Amino acid sequence: xxxxxxxxxxxxxxxxxxxxxxxxxxxxxxxxxxxxxxxxxxxxxxxxxxxxxxxxxxxxxxxxxxxxxxxxxxxxxxxxxxxxxxxxxxxxxxxxxxxxxxx
Length: 103
Description:
Layout: H1 11-16, H2 19-39, H3 47-66, H4 71-78, H5 82-92
Helix pairs in contact: 3-4, 4-5
């Protein structure tokens, strides 16, 4: 982690992060999330479905933010087809407005 900004990963940090360490970070957070979600579950658990849905929505929002709401660029960032990206946006109810440049 970047010592200047806690919780922010810098470029130098990214170079030393291995997929296994990133997966470990994700697993720790998911364990916390699973604990919270399971505490409120009655009957059959939908934990897998809920977590996958949350992760996908988060990734789409991140992609849109990083691409200034340009859907084609956001889809490319995620490595998926633009039409697939658009269809999933509609299903998830995520609305985005194309960024407008200041005149």
